[in-house]
Amino acid sequence: MSSGVCLHSMPGNSTSTQQNLYRMSSQSTLSTMTFALPDISAIDATILNANKADPPLNFDEVGSFSFYIKLVQLFFSIVCAGLHSEGVKCIWDSTVDQLLPYIVCSVYMIINTVTVISYILGQKMPEPSMRIFAVIGCILFTAAGAESLSAWGRHEMMDISPAARIKLASASKMLVSEGFVALATAALYATDTCYSFQRTRSSFSPR
Fold it and tell me: What does 138-199 look like in DSSP terms, one character per residue?
C-alpha cells in the first residue's frame, strides 16, 4: 500500500496536514535513495586504476607491433627447436645442454600460439601475465643460447678424428646457429616487455 493511501486513510487529518506529511515522507524516501546510490567518481577511479594495470584490448591489435613481434617470437621458437634437433648431435657431455633448448622452445611455442590465437579472436589476455611470460622468456632464451654456444665451443675444442668432425660439420653449424637464434629471440622478448610498459604509460599520460 502506498504512502498516499495510508495518509488519506488516517482519520482526523486535514487536507493540508496530509499534504505536508506526504511531502515529508517523499523527501525522506528520496534522501534514502540518494544516499544508497554509489559514488560515480569512486567507480570511475576504480575503473581507471584497473585499466592502468591492464589496458583493454583495442580492436586493431591484430595489425599492431605487439601482434607481429609475437608472431616473430613464435617463428623463432620453431626455428630454434628445429636447429637443436640437429645440433644436439654435437652435445655428448651435458644433459642440461641437450634438454634446456628443447624445453624452452616447446613451452614458448605453446604460449605464443595461444597468445596469437587470442589476438585473432579478440580475447584480451592479462597484460601483467604477458609481461611475466616475456621477462621469463628473455631469461630462458638467453640461458638456452648461452648454453648452445658453450656446447658448440666445447665441441670445437674436442680432440676427435677428422672423419667424425666432417660427419658432424652440419650439426656443428646448426648448433652455433641455434645459439644466435636463441639470443635473438631473447632480445625480442626484452623488446616486447619494454614496448608493453611504454604503451601502458603513454596510454594514460596527460596529453
Answer: HHHHHHHHHHHHHHHHHHHHS---HHHHHHTHHHHHHHHHHHHHHHHHHHHHHHHHHHHHHH
80 closest CA partner among 195, 161, 155, 181? 181
Give residue-wise pLDDT tens across range 109-151: 999 999 889 888 877 778 888 899 999 999 999 999 999 898 8
> What tens digit of pLDDT does each residue of 31-56 get?
544 444 455 566 556 655 555 555 55
**CA–CA separation, 91 and 148 (whole Å):** 9
Q: What whole-number distance in Å separates Cα of residue 183 and Cα of residue 149?
A: 10
Question: What residue ranges do the domains of the chain occupy?
Answer: 3-37, 59-203
User: Cβ–Cβ contacts within 10 Å for residue 166, how many?
Assistant: 9
Distance (Å, whole) CA 183 – CA 189 = 10
Neighbours of 84 (CB within 10 A): 27
Taking the model in full, what pTM does it have? 0.67
Element (H, E) at 89: none
User: Could you tell me which of 100, 112, 107 has the C-alpha nearest to residue 178?
Assistant: 100
How far, in Å, CA of 185 to CA of 177, rounded? Answer: 12
